[in-house]
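tool=predict chain=A
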Amino acid sequence: MYWFCSIRSHDVREFSDRLLVAFAWFLVRVVVFGLFTVDQNERAVKTSFGRAPRRGKATTLDDPGAQFLTEDERPRYSYPQVEVIGPGGPYLKMPWEKVYKVSVATSTVSMAADFETPAANQNGTVLEAVTKDQLNTGLTGQIRYQVDESNLYAVLFGIKAPIVHVMGYFVSVLRQRIASFEAKSETIPGGDVSINDLRKNLRDLNEFMVRECRATPARYGIALDASLITGIDPPPDVESALAAINTAHNQVSSDISLAQASADQKIVQSRRAVEIETLKAQAEVEPLRKLAAELSGLLKKGPQTLEAYLRTVRLRLYDKAGAVYREVR
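tool=predict ok
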């Protein structure tokens, strides 16, 4: 009996020790490792048994950015909207819960970067594209992007590598634009060389890329903030030919501008000469008009008044003349 009681008390103490250890482990696991914080440039999503809490029945199609999706794309990119944990803390999570954090800060990457094959595109420095006139050009620049907080499901759970999809989409749209870009010129008949026209319209090209990529937040959960294409370089073997063409075009444009300026100047001078001659003619005619009006008024008063006026005029002329010659019949 004593032996049985001794074994029983030993088991009770061992069970108590195990229970105390389990409680201590649970306390450390929950209190120490179960607390987390979210930085200012981060957002977090907490899952319970692998499932993230939803925001009701809301999906990405309810977000304003979904208006840029086509009708075929809307069913394919309908992701649920999940509850997002904002900056702050500490927050508590249970052992069966898991926290996913993602940075929402604006990031910049080379537009030639290939995250799956880093050595591609000359180690991610130059992106090749073909123009409409079959010139293989090298494009350099960057894109600025950030994670869209309203579509974290796509970033964390829906797509394996969202930035890879965004870069692929951006590159495909850019190459299509480069291939279909038509050269236009107002001064050179027949149009300009397309690569030169692309260089002159880098700002329009960047704005076009931003407009065409407005659907990326709804597609991949990443918003394209800016397209910063800075250089478009032709192959080395055609660089000298393009330089010669540019020189010729610049010379022709300069000659046309000088000719237009000279023609405009001559037109202005001709108008001024016409105005001057018109004023001279008016100055000569005006005294005659006044004299005719005065004589008409005298004639209306009677023949004697007009004869008296003529006699007075003759006397003035005689007074100024040194000699008078009269015809004698």
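The radius of gyration is 46 Å. Residues 236-301 form the longest helix (66 residues).
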